[in-house]
Amino acid sequence: MAEEEAKEGVGVNSEGSDSVSRVKKLLFRRMLVGIKDGRFFLGSFYCIDKQGNIILQDTVEYRSTRQSSPSPMEQRCLGLILIPSSCRTSCHVDSSIDEQFSLLSLQRTSPR
């Protein structure tokens, strides 16, 4: 049974493996993710699943506070978090210009 499953995995299309190799290059890079309620999370990219949910590690949450506060942003350390794709509004990765263009082509090929 396990041999049959292994044989089926051998026929993975090149487009899928190309996408995986591009995402692997992002592992452990700093990523800033914004969500619908206005908060931002800054952490190290740990993984993404087929649905687009992102896991960040060593994450810090930033949220805006009242203007009467001395600092316009409040922060707290969270550690390992999962950000659902349905909540995400923006996603930025520390990377070179060439890598950013590569990610743009990855975005166009991913199914929605």
UniProtKB/TrEMBL annotation:
<dbReference type="InterPro" id="IPR050914">
    <property type="entry name" value="snRNP_SmB/NAA38-like"/>
</dbReference>
<dbReference type="InterPro" id="IPR010920">
    <property type="entry name" value="LSM_dom_sf"/>
</dbReference>
<dbReference type="Pfam" id="PF01423">
    <property type="entry name" value="LSM"/>
</dbReference>
<dbReference type="InterPro" id="IPR034110">
    <property type="entry name" value="LSMD1_Sm"/>
</dbReference>
<dbReference type="GO" id="GO:0031417">
    <property type="term" value="C:NatC complex"/>
</dbReference>
<dbReference type="InterPro" id="IPR001163">
    <property type="entry name" value="Sm_dom_euk/arc"/>
</dbReference>
<protein>
    <recommendedName>
        <fullName>Sm domain-containing protein</fullName>
    </recommendedName>
</protein>
<feature type="domain" description="Sm">
    <location>
        <begin position="23"/>
        <end position="84"/>
    </location>
</feature>
